[in-house]
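Q: What changes when magnesium ion is included in the input?
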Amino acid sequence: MDYMSYKEYLKHITTFIFDVDGVLTDGTVKVTTEGEMFRTMNVKDGYALKTAVEKGFKVCVISGGTNEGVRVRLQNLGIKDIFLGASQKTQVLEEYLKTNNLKAENVLYMGDDLPDFKIMQEVGLPTCPQDAVPEIKAISKYVSHKKGGKGCVRDVLEQVMKVQGKWAITNGVSAKYD
Ligand SMILES: [Mg+2]
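A: The predicted holo structure follows.
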């Protein structure tokens, strides 16, 4: 699998898997006096996620967190494969690939911290945001110039869809913005 360059991999991606905290969010949580936690997600990432689903890509989210608000937000973007509370991400990956008859080499994964380390070694195209921890940057085939929650998800989605001629601007069709 390592014979391909990063650009070459983009052509073969059928499946995107994202971590939540520090990737789909900027990694911060606002905590209220009642202990409720608020996360921030990026609308531009959301638009690209929705477009990817509409273009027929498999889009999956695997997170160690268990926030149901996260599930609702992602479901509203059309994402069906949402695995929260995943303590063993590699196990979820293996089952997901088997169930959907997918190959690991066609998967782009984006993670930012040590819980993503093992799973990133099992997929074709491991990627990370600019502010990922050094260990994750070291094993990534691509480090986005964007940070977690600041457009890193959009960055990789857009690159793959552009290379495959599926991005809105290249075919005149666009998803609804919300
Ligand atoms: Mg994370």
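Observations recorded in class: The chain has one domain: 13-163.
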